Amino acid sequence: MNTLFFYFSILLGFLASDKPKLTINIQNIESIQGKIIIGIYSAEEGWLEKDSEIRHYRVLVSKNTEQLIITDLPKGDYAISMYHDENSDGICNLNFIGIPKESYGFSNNFKPKFSAPKFKDCKFSLSEDQEMSIKLVD
Predict the structure, then answer these.
(1) How many domains does the chain fold into?
(2) Which long-range contacts (C-beta less than 8 Å, at least 24 apart) are formed by 118-121?
(3) pTM for the structure as a whole
(4) pLDDT averaged over consecutive 10-residue blocks of the chain (138 residues)?
(5) C-alpha triplet 116, 94, 59: angle, nearest 5°
(6) Residue 3 placed within a domain
(7) CATH code, 30
């Protein structure tokens, strides 16, 4: 019986390691209204396009730093975009020239200058449990 338990434990260990834990600390939240909308992408194709994320999360804001723990991503390369939907209208509001009016952030804390970032600018590899911080910018 103990041998069966031992093999079962090893099998569960192998299965668990197939999907590492990604912990995202969201920093610089200026107001506790609304939600943080997070999109996770796995390729350049579809990057930053609506409904092309492989995962989509909403975090209710209750303090100036929030944490999201993701356990359903297989090992691979990803990029993250997020914005603070303060008015809870479900979209990232833009000004007349297309610059976000709501705070936003990207993996690698990439800060775009004159255009949206490319997937490669925000790409990271998830192969084991990982913790990252993303600082929202205005």
Answers:
(1) 1
(2) 118/44, 118/47, 119/41, 119/43, 119/44, 119/47, 119/79, 120/44, 121/79
(3) 0.84
(4) 53 65 96 95 94 94 91 97 94 89 96 92 97 95
(5) 85
(6) no
(7) 2.60.40
Does 107 fall in a domain?
yes
Residue type, 31: S
Q: Residue 88 contacts by C-beta under 8 Å, 6 or more apart in sequence?
A: 33, 34, 35
Instruction: State the alpha helices, DSSP H only, in the chain.
Output: 2-16, 119-122
Distance CA 47, CA 41 (A): 6
User: Cα–Cα distance between 133 and 22 in angstroms, integer?
Assistant: 11
Structure tokens at 16: 């668990």
Max distance between CA atoms of the chain, in angstroms, equals 68
Tell me the two tokens of residue 18: 């197939």
